[in-house]
């Protein structure tokens, strides 16, 4: 079925009117997922409007997620999109290498400090940040942003919550945002749902590239989302030289919002290097506790310039969206406990050691893996990741294809992201052998030979 066959027909003389007409047909069930909209030329002639008007209407619908474009396959009404997420694959019997999770055994037990966080109830109208936690967090963030003349704190329900709110208070739909390519799944989803236009910036072993950032700024981006350490999925961390070069580029664009997501912070064995210079006007540094205190501790600290903090605070109105003071007190009690901090340091060393050990096993099997920083390995294959993943499934493994993280860089589609820190030595040895065999089989298929 097409919209040409659907009464009432699409109507309107402006892009907004045409888009609203299509939305109305979808809401009334007269257009359903998979239905094709008329070609641009056909609808423009029927409505007696310029073709660019229909193009703009279809673009609005695509950005809102109402339609999807298939090139020569036309423009189709979209279904509910499946957006890749971190976490376990439901119902699989395979050994899951795609979780992106920290090791549950290395997450500190909150029971040891719970008795210390119970206090009087917090009522409407009180400060949204717990005072003791604010004092500790201010010192923590100030150590990272020593060159900033002013710094204000905001507490949000995790790093993704902070990024979504930061972009929402600064941007409008269709604004361009520079993001790393390959990109973190959550960031990709935030951009899609917000209707922002992603401008990919390539990532190498030192992080976001200078040429890529310069090109993104030339393209008119209004915000940048950067990962200074343990970039997900590649594990790259900014070097001091790369961070300095990026700061130099950004010096000419002081009002572009720079959001740094230092999600691995206390677990990282790499130094923190910011791309925010002392004269930059709009910036935010986010540090979530989810990797070391657990994903269920939905809390992140955001340090930012005063203007950004003020705008962000407006989106965290007391009584609706503040972060629980009990949760803040619990985080503070854990993070100021010497035994817990020792546990976090040991956890970081464990992730680094296990990733390095598995990377070495892969290298010994002929797979050029390299352990960087973070919870995962980003493994180059020299073959299509989807095909390699299918062969791994036959051997009992479920891996995450690099295609899920790609914005524009085709090379990422020949990578797998593997969460391996919880493999036993025997499992890691078997994985190295199986992955090598899967790559060989995928290459044979690509060459037209029997696998």
Question: What are the main properties of this structure?
Answer:
single chain, 451 residues, alpha/beta, Arc Repressor Mutant, subunit A, Aspartate Aminotransferase, domain 1, Aspartate Aminotransferase, domain 2, 3 domains, eight-stranded mixed beta sheet, 15 helices, 15 strands, disordered N terminus
Explain what the structure shows:
The protein has 451 residues and is α/β, with parallel strands linked by helices. It has three domains: 3-77, Orthogonal Bundle (Arc Repressor Mutant, subunit A); 95-104 and 340-446, Aspartate Aminotransferase, domain 1; 125-333, Aspartate Aminotransferase, domain 2. The chain has 15 helices and 15 strands. α7 (185-194) links the parallel β5 (176-181) and β6 (197-204). α2 (40-47) packs across α3 (51-63), α5 (131-144) crosses α12 and α14 packs across α15 (425-446).
Shape: globular
Helical coverage, percent range: 25-40%
Order of helices and strands: HHHEEEHHEHEHEEHEHEEHEHHHEHEEEH
Task: Report the strand count.
Answer: 15
């Amino acid at each position: 079925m097409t919209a040409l066959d659907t009464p009432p027909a699409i109507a309107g003389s402006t892009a907004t009117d045409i888009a609203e007409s299509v939305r109305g047909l979808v809401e009334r069930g007269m257009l359903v997922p998979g239905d094709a909209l008329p070609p641009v030329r056909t609808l423009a002639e029927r409505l007696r409007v310029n073709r660019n008007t229909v193009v703009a209407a279809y673009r609005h619908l695509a950005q809102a997620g109402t339609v999807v474009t298939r090139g020569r396959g036309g423009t189709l009404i979209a279904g509910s999109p499946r957006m890749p997420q971190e976490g376990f694959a439901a119902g699989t019997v395979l050994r899951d290498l795609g979780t992106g999770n920290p090791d549950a055994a290395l997450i500190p037990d909150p029971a040891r400090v719970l008795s210390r966080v119970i206090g009087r109830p917090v009522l409407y109208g009180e400060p949204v940040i717990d005072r003791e936690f604010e004092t500790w967090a201010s010192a923590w963030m100030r150590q990272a942003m020593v060159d900033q003349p002013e710094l204000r704190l905001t507490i949000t329900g995790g790093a993704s919550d902070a990024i979504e709110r930061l972009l929402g208070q600064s941007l409008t739909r269709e604004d361009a945002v520079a993001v790393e390519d390959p990109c973190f799944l959550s960031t990709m989803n935030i951009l899609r749902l917000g209707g922002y236009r992603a401008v990919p910036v390539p990532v190498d072993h030192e992080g976001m590239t200078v040429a890529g950032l310069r090109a993104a700024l030339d393209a008119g981006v209004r915000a940048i989302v950067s990962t200074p350490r343990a970039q997900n999925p590649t594990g790259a961390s900014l070097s001091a030289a790369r961070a300095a070069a990026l700061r130099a580029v950004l010096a000419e664009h002081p009002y572009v919002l720079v959001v740094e997501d230092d999600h691995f912070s206390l677990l990282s064995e790499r130094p923190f290097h910011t791309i925010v210079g002392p004269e930059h006007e709009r910036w935010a540094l986010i540090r979530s506790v989810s990797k070391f205190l657990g994903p269920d501790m939905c809390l992140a600290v955001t340090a930012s310039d005063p203007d950004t903090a003020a705008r962000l605070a407006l989106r965290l109105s007391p009584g609706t969206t503040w972060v629980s003071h009990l949760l803040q007190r619990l985080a503070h009690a854990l993070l100021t406990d010497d035994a817990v901090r020792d546990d976090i340091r040991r956890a970081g060393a464990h992730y680094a050691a296990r990733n390095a050990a598995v990377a070495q096993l892969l290298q010994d099997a002929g797979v050029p893996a390299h352990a960087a920083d973070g919870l995962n390995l980003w493994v180059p294959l020299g073959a299509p990741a989807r095909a390699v993943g299918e062969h791994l499934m036959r051997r009992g493994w479920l891996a995450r294809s690099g295609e899920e993280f790609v914005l524009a860089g085709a090379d990422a589609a020949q990578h797998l992201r593997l969460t391996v820190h919880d493999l036993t030595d025997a499992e890691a040895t078997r994985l190295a052998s199986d992955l090598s065999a899967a790559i060989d089989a995928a290459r044979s298929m690509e060459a037209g030979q029997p696998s």
